[in-house]
Amino acid sequence: MANYNKIQTLVLMFALLISFTMANFGFLGGKASCEKVFGVRSGDNCTGIAQMFKLSTVTFDSNNPNLKCDALFVGQWLCVAA
Ligand SMILES: *[C@@H]1O[C@H](CO)[C@@H](O)[C@H](O)[C@H]1NC(C)=O
């Protein structure tokens, strides 16, 4: 029974890690209410994508909090309709 506490600690740490990771990727936050996503393609930029979906920069920014427009990467998912 000496291992029981060790296992319990490991399970707790694992659960914390998972919830931390999910929070970071937005699974627990605003992304859940996103109705339409757009995958960034090569050459895309924030201005171009906002224009493509007829979004104001304010709407675009509020749909995508914490987005780094100077560090977009191909395959990144952006919320274009909340
Ligand atoms: C962003 O993309 C749009 C549409 O593709 C393009 O017209 C514009 O020049 C681009 N802006 C920059 C800063 O690359």
TrEMBL record:
Record keywords: Chitin-binding, Signal, Virulence
Pfam families associated with the record: LysM
LysM domain mapped to chain residues: 36-80
GO terms for MF: chitin binding
Signal sequence coordinates: 1-23
Domain of life where this protein originates: Eukaryota
PANTHER family according to UniProt: AM15, PEPTIDOGLYCAN-BINDING LYSIN DOMAIN
Name recorded for this polypeptide: LysM domain-containing protein
Organism annotation: Acer saccharum
